[in-house]
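Question:
Write out your own:
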Amino acid sequence: MIRLMWRLVRALATLVALGVALYLGGPYLLAHAGRSLITEDPLVKGDMALVVSGQPYLCVPEAARLYHERLIPKILLVNEPRPAGQEDLLRVGIRYPDGLERSLQLLEALHVPREAILTIPERADDLRAEAYMVSRLLSNRSMRTLIIVASKAQTTRARKIFAAGLGSKIDLVMHPVSADPFDPGRWWKNRDDFRQVLWEYAALVDLWRRGLWRAVVGDMTLAPPDVAVR
């Protein structure tokens, strides 16, 4: 009986110790999870900057700043999927500018000349499709350094995807937007940051799943089609 009570006391003490450790170390672990989503390389001169689609009001001004600071001579934009409901508006004659058009308008307002902008008008459904399109475009160009401009929480996943898609011939420089309000040390206290972290980790798990599948059964993905550049 005494031995049983002693075991219960030890189990209770272990649970209390674990609870205290989680309480004290929880913020550190959560902050580490937020910081792990951010990949930032030292900024150097590049041959081109790719603006990752999805958040043009954050990423496009940052790319324009790099251009005006003469860190890049060209900016590359990839079209994004139409938002839900836009097709219905088009059917009734209401036209709303898509992501590519908004990005071009922003660059024009930021005094980036049109000849310094390359666009891929095909719509990329996700970041993997975007990487395939960019890979096919750059395969016919002399390119050594590509700066990828993305939101902070997107940079780790973007590096994994573009590194796999572009190979080792092109040096990737991940450049998170400095004006991005994402706070890796307090993301769980902000609704938008919370959603972004959950989305990114879900996407990273899916990326790992795809990699495991390719390792087991081989890569069955067809080569991406040629892309038009404007």
